[in-house]
Amino acid sequence: MRRARRLIAALALVAVASVALAACGDDDDTSAASTAATTATACERSDLDLVADDTLTIGTDSPAFPPYFVDDDPTNGEGFESAVAYAIAAGLGFAPDEVTWAVVPFNSSYAPGPKDFDFDINQISITPERAGQVDFSEPYYTTPQAVLVAAGSDYAGATSVAELKDAKIGVQVGTTSLDAVTSVIGPSSEPQVFNDSNDTVRALKNGQVDAIVTDLPTAIYLRDVEIEGSEVVGQFSAPGGDDWGVVLAKDSALTPCVSSAVSALRESGELAAITEQWIGAEAPELDLE
Questions:
Q1: Secondary structure of residue 163 in the 3-state scheme
Q2: CB 108: neighbour CB atoms within 10 A?
């Protein structure tokens, strides 16, 4: 059935392109119109190649934790990435009850090879290495950096990065957060660099540092789950922020359709509203002056 529909659609496109060529005599315009029509037709729900019939299969890891998911339940539509996933699904023509979730370990999601999901969403940064193994949609989120401190500490009331210059700052080695600390905050003493996030968290808990800097969603997660009595002072934009994209199998025909759905969400303002609801409203903007 799908092959028959695609053949009819293809023949219709040839007819449309031929008429346009005869009427206009402009190769560029004809090519652009044909490309646009092809993209629109290929993204009709009835023509999507899915891993299972009549359902859109979305992958993510387990446990699914906040602020990306709520109650470890991706199906409830609550949490940043659950909401984004269902919004993309709607853009592809799927109602919530036509979505199936699959558990996909983080490292498996972007490993080479066939996939048992149509797309996966799990805070996966777009990197050149990963992009050589799988497809990514256009980014649905670019994370800012955030400052996490002990509640009631000397730096808990900071409203600008300038007020953090004399703080002892902890950060994980090799991260964009370290770059942000150096280039944006410019602390008066060298930041304390740790090998992994556990050591960084432990340093704040033990009072070894006054603050730690990490991407905003991670800071929220640490505040809510791992570091009791902490607070996110604020967020700030910095060069080198991570772009997160939806993962698809390499050369998937679904990739341009998912990217188009993400673009539509951005243009309509729905993506910004989802971000504000689940992440953006969590921390004030720090003055960069």
A1: helix
A2: 14
The tens digit of pLDDT for each residue in 93-143 reads 999 999 999 999 988 999 999 999 999 999 888 988 899 999 999 999 988
CB 67 within 8 A of CB 220: yes
Which residue's structure tokens are 């991570």? 242
Write the CA distances from 43 to 94, 101, 256, integer angstroms: 12, 21, 8
Strand partners, 99: 56
Residues with Cβ within 8 Å of 255's Cβ and at least 6 positions away in sequence, in order, are 135, 136, 137, 248
- Strand positions, DSSP E, 46-178: 56-60, 99-103, 119-120, 135-136, 141-142, 145-150, 169-172
* Number of residues written out for the chain: 289
List, in sequence order, every residue forming a beta bridge with 147; answer none if it has no partner: 213, 234
The tens digit of pLDDT for each residue in 270-288 reads 999 999 999 877 788 898 7
Which residue(s) pair with 146 in the sheet?
214, 235
At 134 the pLDDT is 97
